[in-house]
Specification:
A: alpha+beta; 14% strand; B: 452 residues; mainly alpha; 71% helix
Chain lengths: 179, 452
């Protein structure tokens, strides 16, 4: 059974923040820190840029807007023009289409935000090698962890253990890969 | 604390583990006896509601008291009533999130759940008011064999889109916020079935920072998207009335007036539910404190006064317009056959909330609970006055009439309260009532602030 990652526990969010800076500076590529709540400043400590989700959601909203425009113009002006209350057909009926343009923009953007977030987080998934570590269940309570994935040729498992240890980690454990 | 609100951090010994334990124990503990009693009552009322609906569909809308001038009556009144209640949740979760009101942390989950359940209750009415409920799908823009498309320029169709979008986005927002807390329940519970159910619902959440950063961005975006949405929903509902030409409905003040009323009624319902819940679950008192109640009372006072201003402005505009029909419509509103409902509406919505000027009425929980029943009732009377009072006193006196509710009208309305209560009881039994990860983040921030 091969190793998936080397993981360690940290006593507090501050300790985790300091450790993250050390791991980042060591030049590790595939690693993450785990906490019960989002820690302020952790993105900088890990060297992560701002999430690109906002830009994707803009595109989702735009798609919703265009879909609503196409749907409403196509039906009210071409497919089924209806004289209701003397309202015009064609472009000048636009103000009457505003509410649904708005609602569909929001609807598509919201779906993009949730689905985009899940996809970028590689979720949903039923299991993960980290869940086999009995201490790890504390991550959703009040415990803090860091895990570095093995398999980087520049770092041996022993080197990763030492790195986590000098960064202040305790309970350093090898996480086994799933068969 | 900059906002002057007492939060849990002022209590010693309130660690992160304490938060997890207290909130999760409500879900994990044995089902209390009062819950079964409450659930039985709510379930019976829900059954009553469904019986009435089945009776309605199998017999026809004639079982309601609707008649020719009063084509809209209890159904639309109750629809607007429930949809209005459904506004406070998203307002608390979205707008107060963007404005960094930290006191929202401990109440927004329950308020959002309440929103969803209120919208479910609301959706029953228009869906069955169409008469032939099996034809409801005609409102969906799908190609059909008659080559007919819905009329996108009709406020009623805007309403369909507004309500469904609001419900869908509220579910997404609520569920997204639940994911990390569902992971907490997954990691704590022992039973195999429970573990798999919570495990599947938690979607494999691990709390990694690479996940948190997208999660936080998604949450922020959803809050940003929900903010205009929540303001739009009741505006669109008000278009059902304002875009028509009936005297008493055709008014530009309707959208803001309806939104203020919705927030007013919604906060009243949040307090109606939260105060008993926190009385029963003692540990929650440290999370939902008197200062939360105090703040919500102030919101009720503000929005109640806005509603009062709107009433005054409606009457003033009717008089000032010089329009005979408008003047007559508002004269009938105040002194016509539904004048009693108009009086009840003014007393409940404008007069009673003024008690919240006094601190003593905002800080005694029993007092608050009694006072917020007035907005709850008053907002129903408001919609009844607007819907039924206006339709039965239209342009031509020859077309005037009256509305008398039937037993089906009354029982369906009572039954929706049962449905609402039943869904809320299920929520407090199976899902974390308080957003644990946000409370923990708040806790860490404050401790940091004190240390630094």
């Amino acid at each position: 059974m091969s190793a998936h990652a080397i993981a360690a526990e940290f006593p507090s969010a501050d300790a985790l923040l300091l450790a993250a800076e050390q791991i980042r500076d060591a030049g590790i590529r595939r690693w993450d820190v785990f906490s019960p709540y989002p820690i302020r400043g952790m993105d900088e400590a890990m060297g992560l840029k701002r999430s690109v989700l906002g830009k994707i959601v803009f595109l989702g909203g735009l798609a919703g807007f265009l879909a609503a425009a196409a749907l409403q113009f196509a039906t009210t002006s071409f497919l089924y023009p209806l004289d209701a209350g003397g309202k015009p057909n064609g472009f000048w009926t636009l103000p009457a289409l505003f509410p649904i343009l708005f609602e569909m923009t929001i609807l598509f953007a919201a779906f993009t935000a949730v689905i985009g977030m899940l996809l970028m987080n590689r979720l949903p998934r039923l299991n993960h090698p980290l869940f086999d570590w009995d201490r790890f269940s504390g991550v959703t309570d009040d415990k803090f962890f860091a895990a570095i994935e093995t398999g980087d040729p520049d770092f041996s498992e022993q080197a990763l253990r030492e790195l986590l240890s000098t960064a202040g980690g305790t309970n350093i454990t090898t996480i086994a890969d799933k068969p | 604390m900059s906002d002057g609100i007492v939060t849990i951090h002022q209590y010693p010994g309130r660690t992160m583990g304490w938060v997890t334990n207290e909130v999760s124990s409500i879900v994990e503990g044995k089902t209390p006896r009062w819950w079964w009693v409450a659930f039985a009552v709510a379930g019976a009322l829900t059954a009553l509601c469904f019986f009435c609906l089945v009776y309605l569909v199998s017999t026809g809308v004639g079982v309601w008291g609707n008649n020719n001038p009063a084509g809209w009556a209890f159904d639309i009144t109750n629809f607007v009533f429930w949809i209005g209640i459904g506004h406070a949740g998203t307002l608390i979760s979205a707008i107060l999130f963007l404005t960094r009101q930290r006191w929202r942390t401990s109440i927004h989950r329950a308020a959002e759940a309440m929103t969803l359940f209120a919208v479910i209750c609301a959706a029953i009415y228009p869906a069955l008011h169409v008469g032939r409920a099996w034809m409801v799908w005609f409102m969906a823009p799908v190609p059909n064999s008659n080559a007919i498309w819905p009329n996108f320029r009709s406020p009623l169709l805007w309403d369909v889109f507004a309500i469904t979008t609001y419900f869908t986005v509220s579910v997404l927002f609520w569920f997204t916020g639940l994911i990390p807390d569902l992971a907490t329940l997954r990691d704590r519970c022992r039973g195999k079935i429970r573990k798999s159910i919570y495990g599947i619902l938690a979607l494999g959440w691990r709390g990694g920072n690479r996940q948190w950063r997208h999660f936080e961005m998604a949450y922020l975006l959803l809050a940003g998207l929900s903010t205009p949405l929540v303001l739009s929903v009741h505006s669109v509902v008000s278009f059902d009335f304002a875009v028509s030409i009936n005297p008493g409905w055709h008014a530009t003040i309707f959208p803001p007036y309806f939104v203020a009323g919705a927030i007013f009624g919604g906060f009243a319902m949040v307090l109606t539910i939260l105060i008993p819940t926190c009385t029963i679950y003692r540990p929650l008192r440290d999370l939902v404190t008197v200062s939360h109640v105090d703040t919500m009372c102030k919101v009720i006072l503000l929005t109640g006064s806005l509603v009062g201003y709107s009433y005054a402005m409606e009457f003033f505009t009717a008089w000032y317009s010089g329009n005979l029909c408008e003047r007559a419509a508002f004269w009938q509103r105040a002194f016509g056959p539904y004048g009693w409902a108009c009086a009840a509406m003014v007393v409940c919505n404008v007069v009673m909330p003024q008690l919240f000027w006094f601190r003593i009425f905002r800080t005694r929980l029993l007092c608050v609970w009694i006072i917020v029943q007035f907005p709850n009732a008053g907002m129903w009377f408001e919609r009844y006055v607007i819907v039924t009072g206006t339709l039965t006193r239209g342009f031509s006196p020859s077309a005037w009439g009256l509305f008398h509710p039937t037993w089906v009208d009354v029982c369906t309305f009572i039954g929706t309260f049962g449905l609402f209560a039943m869904l809320f009881l299920l929520f407090i039994r199976f899902l974390p009532m308080i957003c644990m990860f946000e409370v923990k983040a708040d806790l860490a921030e404050t401790q940091h602030g004190e240390a630094g």
